[in-house]
Each structure stands twice: as C-alpha cells, then as structure tokens.
Design brief:
about 0% strand, 4 helices
Length: about 120
C-alpha cells in the first residue's frame, strides 16, 4: 500500500511539473503578462506622443501662428516692424556703461574726422 501511495505521489508531482515550469506553465504565463503590461505602457506613451505630433502637424497646416512661433524660436526671425534686442547675461559686460545709438554715431563720426 505504501508503494502505491508513493507511486501516486510521484505521478501527481510529474503532472504538476509542466503546469508550473513547462512551456505553457504558470511561470511562462507570468513572464508574458509582465511583458504585456510593459508593452501597453510603452504604447500609451507613444500614443500620447503621436497625438502631440498630430496636433502640431495640424497647427502647421492650418494656422500661421504655429509657423510664426517656429520661425521666431528656431530661426530667430523678427517682423519688419519689430526691433530685436539681445542681452548678454554671461557677466562679461557687467559694470560697463552701454553705448546708446546716438553715442555710437558720435564715436564713429569723431574717429572719421581724426583721420
């Protein structure tokens, strides 16, 4: 009787092996589930990125404001009726007095007269 019990216990263990560790077992199913959840997360990130890019394309096709914003930001363009000021904040020019346009004209005209 003990031999029969041991044989049945061994058969139950042999049946359990493919369920837990086999090709289609619980361990493999858990790994696939983890991979699936990671892929879904990545897909949602890419969908958000695609929606953002689609909105940008739609703005570029339909609206001139987006084109103007790009031209100003990336190409440094200004309108004809605008004046562009650029400030140097690196600290090299601190403590020096700025030259006004009138001062610039008098400095250049003074140097021309001395030659």
């Amino acid at each position: 009787m003990k031999i029969l019990g041991a044989i049945l216990a061994a058969l139950i263990l042999l049946i359990q092996y493919p369920l837990w560790l086999g090709k289609g077992g619980w361990l493999r199913a858990w790994q696939i589930d983890e991979t699936l959840s990671q892929q879904k997360s990545r897909n949602s990130q890419l969908e958000a990125r695609n929606a953002s890019l689609a909105a940008e394309v739609r703005d570029l096709k339909q609206g001139s404001e987006a084109i103007e914003e790009r031209a100003r930001g990336e190409l440094g363009m200004v309108r004809n009726d605008e004046i562009f000021f650029q400030y140097d904040n690196r600290g090299e020019n601190r403590g020096q007095t700025p030259i006004s346009p009138a001062g610039l004209q008098s400095a250049t005209s003074g140097s021309k007269n001395s030659h």
